Fold:
Amino acid sequence: MLPSLRPPDVTPVDLLVVAPHPDDAELGAGGTVARWTDEGRHVAYLVVTSGEKGSADPDADPRALARVREAEQRAAARILGVDQVVFLREPDQGLEDTPAFRREMVRWIRAFRPRIVVTSDPYRRYLWHRDHRVVGQVVLDAVFPYARDPLAFPELLEEGLPPHKVAEVWCWASEDPNHRVDVTGVFARKVEALGCHRSQLAGLPFEDPAAWLWDRAREAARGTPYELAEAFHRAVALP
Structure:
């Protein structure tokens, strides 16, 4: 079982995936994660909420659901070869872009020291989960300039967390994708990892979730030489 971790406990990674809820990482970037871990690169998950409101059952116990969803997320992460999983346990459907949340995001970015951060696109228009918008915006702001600048949140220096410059940010679910990853060879692992999120699969409006995922991946690969892909908006950090 992957443990709950604190900044002093974590080790640097190549890729940090910041997900608003359990299952978002697999939906948005599960194939990319599988490719990276297969290549021997280190990946960590930072899961902002435990998804305790992710149920259509009005009688569901949010605390029990949070435990279930964290267990599902750990199982999915093991399938994909993720090294470390951290749950911030912020309130599901209650996230706000605050200085405290930005500081916490900077803490973890400085602790993990990733080259690439992957998260949800905050600029998707109209019907989009607010938690996804808020997390994406906070991540982008934390990457640049706060994680980079030593005078931003100087109290983090006292925690032994020096500045860190992230090279790139990749945003999934973007309406303006400019980067695609070939996931043809690892797509079965993505589907298997998503299958761990049993509490959520029952609520999907699809008879065959795997076929729905296949259609999405095939559409993301349109115009590329790949059969199946994951699409992102890739932003390269300033020098």
Observations:
- Strands lie at 15-19, 43-49, 84-90, 116-120, 168-172, 179-182, 229-236.
